[in-house]
Amino acid sequence: MAIQPGVGYTFTASSQGTNFSIQTPWGAWAAYPQDDGHPFKIVNVYLHTSGGSTTVRYQVQSGTLNNLVPLIDDVITGTEVKLDRVTAGVANPPTGELVSSNYDATTKTSYITLRAGASLTTNDYPDSDDTTNQYPVIIGANVPFTPDSNTWGFLTIGSISVDSITAPTTFTVNQNVTGSLWADRIKLGTDTAQYYYARI
After folding, report:
1. Pick from 82, 65, 43: which is nearest to 173 by CA?
2. Closest to 133 measured CA to CA, from 156, 112, 151
3. How many contiguous H segments (helices) and E segments (strands) does the chain have?
4. Distance (Å, rounded) from C-alpha 48 to C-alpha 167?
5. Rounded to whole angstroms, how far apart are CA atoms 136 and 116?
6. How confident is the model at residue 11 (pLDDT cuts 50, 70, 90)?
7. Domain boundaries in the chain?
8. What is the reported pTM?
9. How far is Cα 158 from Cα 74, in angstroms, rounded to an integer?
10. What mean pLDDT, rounded, does the chain reach?
11. Phi, psi dihedral angles at 28 (to 5 degrees)
């Protein structure tokens, strides 16, 4: 049986052996577009002006915390929805919004934070009931790594800094988390609960 050259590969045979190559005629690897997306990436950040005031709006690519897709307060619907929302069979990610109270007054930075709590009924962490306050949610916080407590664990997935809190004209995005997460909550005696995270 003879193998003939085809699209994406070449084949040669002679008395000295055979050669099968998939490198030519393909182009260099750098010529192909690279997808730099990842779970919990802060994306589609833009300035939104309405009624004379300007805010920063953003989206977060879907990711999971212990296999749970977090919620975010969607400015369009005014409700908390999961990051992986689908409408009529098409991806329709929610959009968060940062107002002046979401920024640190000195650094002009809002820390995009993943907050989750233990179930008040089963003590499971994080709470898997998306109708409770303890279910994982993405929030804009005015402090980095809000101190953990027995009620909440916090992890800053990234930040958005602006030139002005009340009337932003430029912004800068920084990313801390680059994948979905697995978390553990450890509570010993009267000590404050400790939270540990690993990228998966």
Report:
1. 43
2. 151
3. 0, 15
4. 10
5. 4
6. low
7. 37-183+193-199
8. 0.81
9. 18
10. 89
11. -65, 150
